[in-house]
């Protein structure tokens, strides 16, 4: 059992004075976007979108491997042989290459993932007939191709990842010398007419210092972004029996919008012993966020902070940091126009909610 709990929420807010990305982007701009958290609330401009190429089972479109099957054939609904599937095969200098991605327009590859990378990746930028750049697939996605090392690339969760940007102005094609991969290639496409500095190998040398700086930011240092900060602090304190809403009060501070919540710092000190009891407390405190009247978030604090025991597993990153002091900082962005959007509630049961998908 436990008798008291102190819950403190600190909000750091800002008034925006920045502007959206312009119609011309350098390679340095692409790198800076990796730490621009304002992208989390800023809506995309007209013509901006993201697409993905992958090794998904093409049988899900026309039945399992049967060309004569109809698209509505239920056999294809559960096709899951999502390995070794490519857009096509091409022959270059007498050698076979397998096309992972082929996209026209102005954009940037923002993520390459594979479960089993082998062979060599070739990048054909802006219609080049020969590869603009190449790298061993596994080395690139394992963070072993300097300067594209951690945190830009690395093996995580039994998968190999590369998040370094590979921009293009008119066209990008990615092929591999080997096949039989599980893979994803994610592309951020810009509006028609956007001028993008295309990728070339010498940019990695030119921006080596920038890559080092941005890598440190990705590993957990705070980022201010291209805005002017107007800091306000609001504190939500809960003392005594946390099941009594009368104990929950806002500090006297003006938090009305239009504003963007830039940081939520949570510190809970329950008078309980043992990680199990602490986890139960955190799963019973629900965070609800309604942006301008639209319900957006309802989640237990333990899940929102990705820390079941609030500080028992220290982590550091650009969006989330927690330490053994019991504090968790969630550097996520929420924009609102009117009254403060956060609310808290207590539930007498551990919060496990069945989701209905549609």
Q: How are the elements arranged and paired?
A:
Elements: E1 5-14, E2 24-25, H1 27-33, E3 49-54, H2 59-62, E4 88-92, E5 95-104, E6 107-114, E7 120-125, E8 133-136, H3 137-141, E9 153-156, E10 159-162, E11 166-168, E12 171-176, E13 183-189, E14 195-196, H4 202-206, H5 208-218, E15 233-238, E16 248-250, E17 259-270, H6 275-284, E18 285-291, E19 294-300, H7 301-304, E20 320-322, E21 327-330, E22 334-336, E23 342-346
Parallel strand pairs: 2-14
Antiparallel strand pairs: 1-15, 1-17, 3-13, 4-5, 5-12, 6-10, 6-11, 6-13, 7-8, 7-12, 9-10, 15-16, 17-21, 17-22, 18-19, 18-23, 20-21
What does this structure look like?
- With 358 residues, this protein is mainly beta.
- It has two domains: 5-15 and 227-346, Sandwich (Jelly Rolls); 24-218, Jelly Rolls (Sandwich).
- The protein contains seven helices and 23 strands.
- The strands form five sheets. Strands 1, 15, 16, 17, 20, 21 and 22 form a seven-stranded antiparallel beta sheet that branches. Strands 3, 6, 9, 10, 11 and 13 form a six-stranded antiparallel beta sheet that branches.
- The chain starts with a strand and ends in a 12-residue tail after the last strand.
- Mean pLDDT is 74; it is low at 1-12, 14-22, 63-67, 222-240, 249-254, 324-328 and 350-355.
């Amino acid at each position: 059992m436990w008798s008291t709990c102190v819950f403190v929420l600190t909000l750091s807010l800002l008034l925006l004075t920045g502007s959206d990305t312009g119609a011309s982007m350098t390679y340095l701009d692409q790198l800076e976007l990796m730490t621009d958290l304002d992208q989390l609330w800023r809506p995309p401009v007209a013509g901006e979108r993201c697409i993905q190429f992958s090794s998904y089972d093409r049988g899900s479109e026309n039945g399992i491997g049967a060309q004569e099957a109809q698209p509505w054939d239920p056999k294809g609904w559960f096709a899951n042989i999502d390995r070794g599937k490519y857009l096509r095969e091409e022959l270059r200098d007498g050698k076979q290459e397998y096309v992972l991605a082929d996209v026209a327009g102005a954009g940037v590859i923002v993520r390459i993932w594979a479960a089993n990378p082998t062979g060599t990746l070739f990048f054909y930028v802006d219609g080049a007939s020969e590869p603009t750049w190449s790298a061993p697939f596994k080395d690139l996605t394992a963070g072993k191709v300097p300067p594209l090392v951690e945190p830009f690339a690395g093996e995580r969760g039994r998968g190999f990842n590369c998040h370094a940007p590979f921009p293009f102005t008119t066209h990008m094609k990615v092929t591999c010398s080997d096949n039989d991969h599980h893979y994803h290639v994610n592309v951020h496409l810009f509006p028609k007419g956007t001028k993008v500095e295309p990728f070339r190998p010498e940019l990695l040398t030119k921006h080596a210092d920038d890559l080092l700086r941005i890598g440190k930011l990705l590993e957990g240092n705070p980022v201010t972004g291209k805005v002017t900060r107007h800091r306000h602090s609001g504190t939500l304190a809960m003392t005594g029996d946390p099941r009594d809403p009368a104990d929950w009060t806002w500090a006297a501070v003006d938090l009305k919008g239009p504003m963007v919540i830039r940081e939520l710092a949570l510190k809970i000190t329950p008078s309980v012993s043992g990680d199990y009891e602490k986890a139960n407390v955190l799963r019973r405190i629900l965070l609800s966020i309604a942006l301008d009247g639209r319900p957006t978030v309802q989640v237990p604090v333990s899940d929102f902070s990705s820390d079941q025991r609030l500080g028992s597993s220290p982590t550091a990153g650009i969006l989330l940091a927690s330490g053994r002091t019991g504090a968790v900082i969630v550097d996520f962005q929420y924009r609102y126009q009117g009254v403060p959007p956060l609310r808290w509630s207590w539930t007498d049961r551990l919060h496990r909610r069945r989701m209905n998908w549609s």
